[in-house]
Amino acid sequence: MDELIPTIRTALCDGTPEVRESAGLAFSTLYKSAGLQAIYEIVPTLLHALEDYETSDTALDGLKQILSVRTAAVLPHILPKLVHLPLSAFNAHAPGALAEVAGPGLNIHVGTVLPALLSAMSDEDKEVQTLAKEAAETAVLVIDEGIGYGLISSLIPFM
Asked: Tell me: the pLDDT tens digits for 76-85?
């Protein structure tokens, strides 16, 4: 574990998409044997890398890779940190990018994500407003139909 965890952590932020994809699969295997330790050892580093302009894009893709293989286990550890108000432009964008991968796995987290994005839609920063609106639209599109129809009608005044 002492060698495997740092290697996967580094590979998830690698500049090469194929390396990040392989690291996501390695994370899934690690999660099978290490459980929550894999999340606790890797996810905080990726979340911290999101704050750095130079590593934010690759870290976001690294998170997408682990979400694609372990959505239900990882999503609850990521979303609360990403939607902590006030949202930065990057944090307004990130939930939408992750929603594309999480798909219906986002259903139970709608109550965490959408209020923050709706709040950000009234931010003074126009970029934050636009990114929050796009992320909210993506989130609504990926959740189950029954939930989505009710949300769309409640979001229309904000769009």
From this structure: 999 999 999 9
